Amino acid sequence: MSHELVKARLNLYAVLQNLEELVRYDEPSAEQAKSWDVGVQFAVMGGPAATLFFKNGECRHVCGKENAPIKLLFRSPKHLNDMFEGKAMPIPIKGFSRLGFLKNDFKKLTDRLEFYLKGGGAGPRDEAYMKLAIRLKLGTAAYAARELAEYDPDGKIVAAGTPDGALQIEVAPDGPAVSISFKAGRAQVTKAKCQAPMAQMVFAGFDVADRVLGGTADVFQEIAQGHLMLRGRIPLIDSFSLLLDRIPRYLS
Predict the structure, then answer these.
(1) Which of 63, 130, 184, 185 lies 20 to 30 A from 147 at CA?
(2) Whole-angstrom Cα distance, residue 202 to residue 207?
(3) What span, in angstroms and rounded, lies between the C-alpha atoms of 142 and 15?
(4) Do residues 203 and 177 lie in contact, with contact meaning Cβ atoms separated by under 8 Å?
(5) pTM of the model as a whole
(6) Which of 68, 102, 118 is the last residue of a domain?
(7) In whole angstroms, what is the distance from residue 53 CA to residue 48 CA?
(8) pLDDT below 50 — which residues of the chain?
(9) pLDDT at residue 125, as a whole number
(10) pLDDT for residue 216
(11) Do both 113 and 158 map to the same domain?
């Protein structure tokens, strides 16, 4: 599978799904989207697709094509990736009367998402910012790992050697958590703790999670200082860490 196609899958399924959490936890985004009743489909010609639905102040992300009043087509995975980087425009094939919504309201929402994921744009970076940024980055990491386990050449090798079981990743004491379950070389993600995790990766605070997920931490030092706690079946954690290391090859 080509680099651009894997990257497109990460953009559609790991990055775009964050809009669910952004609308739920970011007050300006919630206020902006509270009256929206619209769906937007993103589809690569002959390739992956995802659909977003906004209604009753909530956002729902669906993998694949679902009927929506706005449909955006991309000629290739690279075309979609270029759009995510602000270098290209999609081809609207339905919903021409909603182009103003896409260029204005929806763009403000995606710019807000970029502010949290990349620290771009203007706005305060206080404790509330850090908490939501880590929530979004944690979800991005888990869903990206799921895609890499199935579609990245080296990720497939990692997944094939991963024992079955669920890894729970959380920020202590009461921060966000995600669970990634491996089975027969594939992975599934839940945006919550799981009932019986086989392994746990626990960050002792949002600052620790920021360092580890951002790749700036000395992991062994974080463990030695008690900032990062690893429990249970270590091979599950090792596999996730290897997949995590591959994300920057696709997402900057």
Answers:
(1) 130
(2) 12
(3) 11
(4) no
(5) 0.93
(6) 118
(7) 17
(8) 122
(9) 64
(10) 82
(11) no
- Residue 136 φ then ψ, to 5°: -70, -40
C-alpha separations of 12 from 8, 21, 47, 143, 157 in Å: 6, 15, 11, 10, 23
Q: Is residue 166 part of a domain?
A: yes
Helix (H) or strand (E) holding 246: helix 234-246
Q: How far apart are CA 144 and CA 20, in angstroms?
A: 16
- Give residue 53's domain range: 3-118
In CATH, what number is assigned to the domain containing residue 168?
3.30.1050.10
Strands in the chain per DSSP E: 38-44, 49-55, 58-63, 70-74, 91-94, 165-171, 177-183, 186-190, 199-203, 228-232
Instruction: Report if residue 179 sits inside a domain.
Output: yes
Last residue of a domain, one of 95, 118, 141: 118
- 12 plus 106 within the same structural domain: yes
How many domains does the chain fold into? 2
Phi, psi of 156 (to 5 degrees): -60, -40
Whether 135 is in a domain gets the answer: no
Asked if 21 and 68 sit in the same domain, the reply is yes
Which amino acid appears at position 26 of this protein? D
| Cβ–Cβ < 8 Å for 188, 146 | yes
The candidate with the shortest Cα–Cα distance to 3, out of 72, 76, 67, is 76
What is d(CA 78, CA 152) in angstroms, rounded to the nearest whole number?
A: 16
Q: Are strands 91-94 and 165-171 parallel, antiparallel or unpaired?
A: unpaired
